[in-house]
Amino acid sequence: MSVMTQNMNEMLLRAEADGRGYVVAAMYKFVTLTDIETLQQTIINLCTSHQALGTILLANEGINGTIAAPIDGMTGILEWLEADSRFGGMSLKFSHSPTQPFLRMKVRLKREIVTMGCPEISPAERTGTYVEPKDWNALISDPDVLVVDTRNVYETAIGMFDNAVDPMTTNFRDFPDWAARLAEQQAPAKPKKIAMYCTGGIRCEKASALMQDYGFDEVYHLQGGILKYLEDVPKNDSKWQGECFVFDGRVAVDHNLNPGSYGMCHGCRMPLSQDDMQRPEYVEGISCHHCQDTQDPERTARFAERQKQIQLAKHRGEAHLGASPRNSK
C-alpha cells in the first residue's frame, strides 16, 4: 500500500466514523507537466463525476489545489492521481467538513502554481531541507534558528507558531523583497539558520529555494505545512497558537482540523472573530472595521444589493450562488 493510499484510508475512516459529510484534500507537487491543457479537461471531468468542488491550479511546474468531496468521491479521485506516476509522492493533507465548503469546481492554467513572481525558481530541481512535523518543535526551539511565516497578514492574524517572524506581506509576490533585505543584513544580525512554514507546505518550499539563491546555506521548511503539523502533533505538545486560515468556506480550522471560529468579511476578505462580528462596523456581506472607511460608495451599494438578494433567496428556501459559506458563521 502506498503512502498516499494509506494516509487517504486513515482520514477517510476517521471521517466516516465521525459522520462527516465531506473530506477536504489540500494537495500539491512540483513536477514538470507538458500537457496541462489536456490535463485540465481530464481533471474537470474527474472531479465533476465524483461530486468534488474546489480549485486546482496547473502549470508547467506542477499541480496545486484544494478540493472537497464525499468520501466515495474523494477515494476515486485520489486513486486516479495515484495511478499517474507523475503525482507519486504528492503532498496531501486531509481534513473534513460537515458541509461542502466550496461553491464550484475550477481547474485553472497558470504560469506558476504558487505565484511568487520568480518563475526561474524551480523547487523540483532544488529546495530547502524538509522537516517532518514530529521534528519541527526541536528545530524551532534552537536559538540560532529564525522561524519565518511565509503567509500573508490576513492569515498570520489568527494564528502563528511560537516566536515566528511575520514578514507582513499582503501578497506572496512581496516575499522576495523581504527576503532580499534579510540577505543584506550583516552578522550577527543575519540568521545562520532559517526555518520556514506555510499552510500546506507549497509556499515555504518555493520560498526556501529562493533563500538558497540569496546565499543562505541552512534553510529548512515544514513538510506538509501547518495542516500536516496539526494532523500529526498532539495539541498538548503543540507550539502552534491560534487557528489556521484556510482558503475555503470554513475560513479557519482548529488544532483538531475541525472548522474554526472565524467568519470572513465579504468586502476585504479579512477573517473575523466572533467579537469582530459583534462590532457596530460589521455589516454582513458588505464591510467590517478593517474596510468600512475605505470602501467606495458604488462598491458598497453593489455589495448591499448582493446581500439583499441572498437574504431573499434564503427566505424562499433557495440557494444563492453568491452566498459564500465563508459568511455563514
UniProtKB/TrEMBL annotation:
Sections of the chain in a coiled coil: none
EC number: 1.14.-.-
Residue ranges constituting the Rhodanese domain according to the UniProt record: 141-238
InterPro entries in alphabetical order: Rhodanese-like_dom, Rhodanese-like_dom_sf, TrhO, TRHO_N
Keyword Thylakoid applies: no
Keyword DNA-binding: no
Record GO biological process: tRNA modification
Alphabetical UniProt keywords: Oxidoreductase, tRNA processing
Catalytic activity: uridine(34) in tRNA + AH2 + O2 = 5-hydroxyuridine(34) in tRNA + A + H2O
Entry GO MF terms: oxidoreductase activity, acting on paired donors, with incorporation or reduction of molecular oxygen
Protein family membership: Belongs to the TrhO family.
Alphabetized HAMAP family for the sequence: TrhO
Protein name: tRNA uridine(34) hydroxylase
Organism the protein comes from: Puniceispirillum marinum (strain IMCC1322)
Gene: trhO
